[in-house]
Amino acid sequence: MARVWFVRRLGGKWVAPGGQPAFEMPFADLVFPLDIGTHRRVDDDLPVPAPQLPPEEPAGLQRVIVEVEPKDLDGLEFTGYAAGFYDSTYSPAEAARRLGALRGARRQASAAS
Fold first, then answer.
1. 83 neighbors 72 (Cβ within 8 angstroms)
2. Which of 40, 29, 28, 31 shows the shortest CA–CA distance to 84?
3. pLDDT per residue over 19-71, tens digit each?
4. Sign of the CA dihedral 75, 28, 37, 3?
5. pTM of the model
6. Taking the CA of residue 21 as centre, how many other CA atoms within 13 Å lie in the half-sphere pointing to its CB?
7. Which of 14, 42, 102, 105 has the CB geometry, 3.0–4.6 Å to 85, for a possible disulfide?
């Protein structure tokens, strides 16, 4: 599962207050809702989990970064992606709205089957 980090700037780093990803979902499910293109890869300035800081609401955070491991790419129909970090064009608040709606739709589909 790919990890979606909601982060804010603290000093010279992007930190994830609470130290936990906001979402963990299959990478294929994140590409379109978060507008993750291959050109959005981030090779520096990566997120730093900050468990010593209390978790914050998405509206108080500044950036969405998706962490992708090699196993997340197995069987992926989209090409050009590599393991690493990608940033989204959306704010943490908008990403939470989009992913929350996606997660809710999946639960309803599972319940109906």
1. yes
2. 40
3. 999 999 999 999 999 999 999 999 988 999 999 999 999 999 999 999 999 99
4. negative
5. 0.88
6. 14
7. 42
